[in-house]
Structure formats: structure tokens, C-alpha cells
Amino acid sequence: MSSSFKRFFSTYKFILKLAYQISPSHLFFITFLQSIWGLTNLPVLYINKLLIDLVISAVGRPDWQTVARTIVLVIILRSLIEYIRFAMNRFIYPMESSLSRLLNAKAEILMAQKLNSLDVSTVESPAFQDKFKKIGREYNQRLWGMVQPISQIPNSVFTIISAAIALFTFNPWIGLAIIIFELPDVWLSAKFSKLEYALGERQATTNRLWGWTNHYLTNPQSFYENKILGTVKILTQKMNELAQQIIGERVKLDIKRSKFRSLAEIPSNLLFILLNSYFFILALAGKITLGSAQMLYQACTTLGNGFGMLLSNVNTIYANYLFASDFSWLLDLKSSERVKGRTPRLPFKKGIEFRHVWFKYPNSKNWILENVDLSIEPRENIALVGENGAGKTTLIKLLVGFYTPQKGQILVNGVDVQKYNIHAYRKILSVLFQDFSDYAFSAQESIGYGDISRLKNKQAIEAAAKLTGVHRFIQSLSLKYRTPLSKSFEKGVEPSKGQWQRIALARTLFKNGEVVVLDEPTSNVDPKAEEEIFEKIIRLARNKILLLISHRFSTVRRADKILLLEGGKITEQGTHDQLMLLDKKYARLFRLQAKSYQ
């Protein structure tokens, strides 16, 4: 078996297994009802034949009343079958709708779990982003597009059997001819499914650009800037251009598909004209009854529809497989993060050490960090300063294990970070990034997520909030710590940027890690409040390692040691007083900033 077939069956098995795990009862009953539907085609064919033959046989006969009673009974039987089929449809739709929603919800959860389990370098790559966004656009219809046909296949199979019994008893070659004449359309469907998938691959980046443009137009955070800058016109124009490009290419493909499939259907239509003419000519010649001609006519149509439906279902499965295989690919991705290794021993006997560390991002030619050497003692607080782009945040990403340096080592408590179990290692880290999350849930959750094992410890959460000065704000809210932090919820509020930063800082401190890393933690807080917050943080972190990144020199001068990073290299280090006496770049930057406050 070729690798492509193996991939197809493994993907299909996975999706079907997923649907079965979600709700086996839904899957079973949908398939069962569809099977019953297909089985009812044969009695309907014979009932219609019987009705026509009964009516013709009774025309002009004196005892037509006797035949009329039989006709009424047959009509009642046909109506009963039609009612059963109608009722089954009533049940099939809500069950399919329910299973589809459950499947999509499960898929969304699996995607979120997988995304957050992958290493940062994989997730941040443009190629991954293109494919991930494509999966996000397609999975809600494509996964169900693989499951739904399997429940419809029994319907089409039994429809074919019902029609074939009627035709094959008359002439088996007729049924075979109908099947053969349906094949060109099926082949074209498969071919255009591949072309549609290839088009989706080509448009991945364009679709992602559409998503970002739409985000800037509809995201509430961009609302004010759009009004002030007047960017709505140019952004909507950009969306129109992207729409023309995306939709235009798809329209061309759809027209081409319609043209070729229309041509492919001509032979089968001609065959049906010939066969139906043949049946009714036989009836005129007295070779068969009119009811038989009608039954054979309907059987041809039913067989063609049934076989077309079967192959359409198979093709639908295949077409959706091409997209669902991306979903399967995502879930099969393996993270390069270390899940095995040592667990950090607490308390630290040694601190943090960078030994000749060199680093550049994937697909980049330029070094971000060059031969960085630094050491931090246990229970020492360090301030890292430097201009934008100097490599400060990159250094933090290496420390927390998001990336691995190309050269050199990073030691924590005397052990290479690469030898730690990454999950155990990150438990000892309390890190606040510049791009922190602003959770729209309750204030208690937004802070408590710092340590989910203590999520219900309100006293500890309030203590963390008091450290950052946000407790008073939360207490003033209508629901206090139960207040949603978004106006999109009832009684919710929208904190200011400074309040959000205090909440995020409280969440970081609530974790109570052995190593505390703060990247611009008070950039949106006023200077007076910043002084108070840092005084508390330094006091709190006296028995920990504290690494602070800040552009405010009035704050960093409190640190035990200050490191100046320039162009990926540490050019100066020492206490504030030592660096001022050195009278180099740090001293110049400090005086320049101090001058702005005079």
C-alpha cells in the first residue's frame, strides 16, 4: 500500500475514531437511519409500478371498485413509507448538527492544546503560522465533511441495491452501463479536489494577511486609532483587494470545474434518454407493462443517483481528507521541548550563569546575542538595561527555555538548562513579559492563574494584588474579585493599561517562583507608584533571584548589579554608583533621562 493511501486511511481512522469517542450513539443512529432510508427505495419502486399497472388494468372494467380498494391500500402503504422517510429526516438533521458541533468543539480544544505544547521556535515560524491559520479556517467544515459521508454511504449503497435488483432482473448490462457512464464525473471531482487543496496552499499567506487586516478593523483596541488616523478607508481598500485576489482565483477554479463536469455528464444523460425511450417503446409494443416501464425508468434514475451519491460521498471524504490531513499533521507534530530530565533543587546553592552565549533566530543571518557572559548569585537582584533591540528580551527567552543558544551554555543552580525537565524547570520561574495576557475572566482568576493550584486562595491573591497596588481598584468594583475584566460581560469593567499591568504583575508575583523575571513591568505606571511597587518587589524578592528589565533608570539603580546590553553584548556591569563613576554610556543615559525630569 502506498504512503498516500496509508496516510488517507490513518487520517480517516483518526477522524472517525474522534467522532465515535465524542458520541457513539449519535454516529450509530445517524448511520442506522440513513441505511433504512436507502432500503425503502426498493418498495417505493415496486409500489409505483403496482399502482400504474392496477389503474391501467381496471380502466373500463365493471368491477373497478374492487381494484380501487386495493389501490387505496397501496397508496396508504406508500404514504406510510414516505412518512417514515420524512420523520427519519427530521431526526437525522438535529443529530448531525449536534455531532458536528461537538466534533468542531473537540477539534478546537485539541488544536489549542497542541499549539501550547509546541516549542516557541516552531510556533513563531511563518510556515507554521500559514498552515495553522489555514487549519483554523477549514477544520470546522472539513472534519465533519469526512464524518458525514460515512453515515450517508449505507444510504447510497442500499439505494444502489434497491435499484439494481429491479434492473438486474430485467437486464444486468443496463445497470453496469449506468455505473460506467458515471465514472468520468467522479474522476473529475477527485482531480478538482486536489486543485482546490493546492489553491488553498498557495493562498495561505494571503488569507493570513486578510485575517490581520480584518483584526485591525474589528478589534476594539484598534477602534480609537482607526478614527484618529483615518485608516479605515485604506484598510477596507486592502481587504477589497485581498478579496478580489482570493475570491477571483476560486471563481476561476469553480467555473473550470463546472465546465468540465457539465461536459462529463453529457454521455450519462444521453444513455438515460436512450434507456428510457427503450423502456416505454417496449411498453407500447406490449413486451412489458407500463408500470414496469415506469419502474425501470425510476430504477435507472435511482441507480444513477445512488451510485453518484456513493462516489460523491467517497470523493467528499477524499476532498476533505486533503484538508483534514493538515489537522492530523498538526496533532502529530512533536515538540522539541524536553519532557524528561532533572528537577531543579530548591533552595538554590548557585545562581544563574551565561557562559559565552551566542544566539540568532531561525532563518536570520544576524547574531542577537554575541558571547554573552554574566552571572547572578542566589538572592541577588539584577537590572538589565539597554536600548530597544539590544537583545534584552531575547536573553529572557533563552533563560526560560523558549530557544536554545547556538553556542555556549546557560546554567541554573549549576546545571545546564538543557538537562532540566522543561515543565519542572518552568515551575520555579515567575516571568512577566511585555506582551502579557489580559484575561477577560474574573479579577480573581486573572491573578490566580499565576498558580492554578492556589486559584481559590483568595487571601493569597489579595496579598499579591496589594503588592502591586491594584487591590483597592478591584475592591471598588461592583462584584469585587468576581468582576469580569471586560465590558463585553454583564457588570464587567475595562481596566486601564496601568491597571492591567498591575494585575499582570500581581499574577507573576502570586506564582512565587524561585527566579523572578520582570520585563518592563511598570511601563504604564506613574513614577510615584512605580517607586512604591519596586520597593515592595525588591523586599519580597530578597530571598530570590530577581532579573529586571526596565528603561527607567531611576528604578534600576536600586538593583544589586546593573548590566548594560549593547548590540547583543554586555559592555558595562556594576552597581549604579560604580557605573556612574565609570562615566560611560550608562552614566550618559542616566543623566539624559534625569535631565528630562528637571
Automatic annotation (TrEMBL):
GO terms for molecular function: ABC-type oligopeptide transporter activity; ATP binding; ATP hydrolysis activity. PROSITE patterns: ABC_TRANSPORTER_2. Residues 352-592 form the ABC transporter domain. Keywords: ATP-binding, Membrane, Nucleotide-binding, Transmembrane, Transmembrane helix. GO terms for cellular component: plasma membrane. The chain crosses the membrane at residues 27-47, 67-86, 157-181, 266-285. PANTHER family: ATP-BINDING CASSETTE SUB-FAMILY B MEMBER 10, MITOCHONDRIAL, ATP-DEPENDENT PERMEASE MDL1, MITOCHONDRIAL. This is ABC transporter related protein. The lineage of its organism: Bacteria, Candidatus Amesiibacteriota.
